[in-house]
């Protein structure tokens, strides 16, 4: 085994403390790699490298920066099969989903390459004999701390707007999925990113993550992960007066009305909940179906869910891989264990860890449906990050929206109906950052992404995002 290194100042670097940690395949629990356990000193070196590279990177044109992205997007496509296998092995997702995520990464780079030409200030006429205008300046060193569910895509969302705006960067990947992130960073260097512009420090959230947030030279932190971690990061960042973007948990409701196309709603619920083994921030985490169509809808859903093939993501007929890590696996097992005894619903599909011959000790759990879930159930309150879908029947749309909004989260929500009045009501009254109509889960770098309430603040993606990575400087000129 070759230990994969951190990337600091364009070079592979070990940890100053000399320690490593294991990265394991969640389908087999086999050791894949050992990666340096980054220390406070490693973070300081990475930030120093980013600071030294800043002036050079900020002074080249946005179009030249964009060309690096363009070349990197092509290189990622050329190496897609190798990268997809790596992503599947460390994360667990089926190969098709891993390819999709890597295509998403390339697409994000190309989108920001296209936005390079829109980086400009304004000319503002003022009264009197003068001119005013604004110029946009990059912030300096930006940083991101990212999770393990979509490591490649989320890396793209974080680094691309920051770098295209002329900032330099330090990335802290999740400890269970650093390998694809390290490889993508080396591809960006191969595509022409100057040394020090993008640095990757591996290591624990408590040490590497918090040191990054505390570093006085880091001007902006973008974080995706659990709401509690987001609050901690927000507190630390506030004392350093840093900008923060927080993409936190979600418990997205899906509302199926009685006039919905049930086949397409069933397919949407299965994909919306079980894609990536249910580990997506905008997954369908609560399903509200009108009681008049509930029986038919649930029967079709049950049939579809029972057809899903659980297995190693490297096998080509796998529909759903394992959970990513041991604590997620234990959480889901514990959650499901007492459902019926505690009166939290009736398990109508799945409900246990399947056993596979010769598969080792992977973190597999069956896709699980729970019906008759009472409104105050834990299944509806927590962010259930795994393959479990609670189903609640409702009388009408007023009741569905009231229940859907009864959550501390507000990331996404979807409404499935053909009726325009119901669509309008859903779009106006559902309290979430993203509302889908007759679909769920779709994201794109062209449109803003982010939540309300405990799902965080700030947005990622979309053309307005660049302002999050730029300072406005006003110049007033007297003639
Ligand atoms: P965390 O929020 O703990 O981890 C996300 C990232 O933050 C990782 O890189 C982690 O590092 C880092 N981190 C952890 N603690 C700190 C800290 N104190 N300061 C700075 N960085 C830190 O999520 P978990 O991985 O523990 O997942 C737990 C739950 O979070 C899930 O069950 C799910 O509900 C939710 N979650 C939501 C996601 C979303 O997209 N909405 C994504 C991932 C998780 P390290 O990996 O080294 O611990």
TrEMBL record:
Is Signal there in the keyword field?
Answer: no
Q: Name one Pfam family in it.
A: Aldedh
Q: Which Gene3D superfamilies match?
A: Aldehyde Dehydrogenase, Chain A, domain 1, Aldehyde Dehydrogenase, Chain A, domain 2
Q: Does the keyword rRNA processing apply?
A: no
User: Any signal peptide, and if so, which residues?
Assistant: none
Q: Which CDD domains match?
A: ALDH_F5_SSADH_GabD (cd07103)
One GO term in the molecular function aspect is: aldehyde dehydrogenase (NAD+) activity
**Keywords of the record:** Oxidoreductase
E.C. numbers:
1.2.1.3
Q: Fetch the InterPro entries from UniProt.
A: Ald_DH/histidinol_DH, Ald_DH_C, Ald_DH_CS_CYS, Ald_DH_N, Aldehyde_DH_dom
Ranges for the Aldehyde dehydrogenase domain? 19-475
Which family is this protein grouped under? Belongs to the aldehyde dehydrogenase family.
Subunit structure of this entry? Homotetramer.
Name of the protein in its database record: Aldehyde dehydrogenase
What organism is listed for this UniProt entry? Methanosarcina mazei S-6
